[in-house]
Amino acid sequence: MLTRNCSTGAVLAFFAAFALSLMACPSTTGPTYHTDVAPLLQRECMSCHQAGGIGTFPLTTYAEAKARKDLISFSVSSRRMPPGILDNSGDCQTFPGARWLDDSEIALLTAWADNDAPEGPVPTDIIKPLPLLGLQGDGIVDVAMAEPYTPESTEQEANDDYRCFILDPERLTDSWLTGYEILPGVPSEVHHMLLFSLLDTDADNEAQAKDDADPRPGYGCFGDAGVDNTNLLAVWAPGRDAVTYPEGTGLFVPAGHKLVMQLHYNLLSGVAPDLTALRLRFADRVQKDALLVSLADENLALEGGLPEANYSFTVPLLGLPEPLEMHGAFPHMHTLGRTLTFTRQPIADQTGEQQECLAHVPNWDFNWQEVAFYDAPILVDGGDRLDVSCTFDTSSRSEDVSWGEGTQDEMCLVFVYVTRENGQRVVELID
Questions:
Q1: 256 CB contacts (<8 Å, ≥6 apart)?
Q2: What is the pLDDT of residues 202-257, one digit of tens each?
Q3: pLDDT tens digits, residue range 103-114?
Q4: What is the CATH code for 289-430?
Q5: Which fold has domain 140-286?
Q6: Rounded to 5 degrees, what are φ and ψ at 242?
Q7: Count of CB atoms within 10 A of residue 228's CB?
Q8: Do 140-286 and 289-430 share a fold?
Q9: What number of helices (H) and strands (E) belong to the chain?
């Protein structure tokens, strides 16, 4: 019979060598890139962070993600990224399709980074950015800038350019906008877009006069179309190129009038001639006419030199003759804004116990504006009041700050996307 004589010293030497081998191999317990991290980056990050995108660096490969692991961990932990401005945790409504990571997804990314970003098993098919779903359906009209525009910086805005362009959808009959898609000419430059409908001939003429007076394509503007009597139709920021309004609803666009597209160009990734286009979906009629109603107080006044300046206002709905269906919200401030909270409360409730949070912005960023829709519409009526509270950092200003359309001015408002239960024109009810 064969026997093997193992001394105590040999056994100890074996286990010591085994322990050293374990220490030499980094642990792959926990999330790995290909199995856990890449699908999350694909869904939430790669639409911007890819070659030619608005993101300042790509995140489409393992090497690219590992090189930025600490930045990824910091950005998601501080909720700087993904750049959705609305709290989507469920504490204040939920918004389908919002750019938001839940706590478990943030924990996954930070654990991966803390463990030196293991790659894990390499799959047969490497994950690539998801293709963005384009606008679907009938009634699609394409419009574009009349000529290329090369953004430029100014002394006031070293890295940004805000420009308005007149568009003509050539609609000869009244119609409703039910969806839109932006086709950025230079995706690395086009940072956000606002689209306005001009409502009468005076607005058409005013916009055209501004365009004619400016030697370059379009005209300078900030925050809105820069002319009176307009209606906000669409809001866009990178990562969500096609937007469809709630089923059966749409925003009224009067026949024979122009549109104004405001583009915010960010110049940090370079400057090139841009020729951005829009794909708009119109319907001759909709089940429910919708309106983006502005809840605002133009008496806003803020003391300069404060790290936290507070402002709030109330909109009582006592004069509202019938309930309104509120489908979504679009908070808006300028560059000094920090937080915004939008709530509903029955007027009869003096204790605040029945207050309902409708939207909360924990960390405002002017560059990432969006319209967000609820899972289901919320009814508001004449027994309610709507409250909006904003905070601002005015420490960079030596003088007081007031309401206005300019870069140095401020706003505290919420647009709400509303319809009537009977489907009739909203403007007839609130005018």
A1: 171, 172
A2: 999 999 999 999 999 999 998 789 999 999 999 887 766 688 999 999 999 999 99
A3: 888 898 898 889
A4: 2.60.120.230
A5: Jelly Rolls (2.60.120)
A6: -115, 130
A7: 12
A8: yes
A9: 7, 20
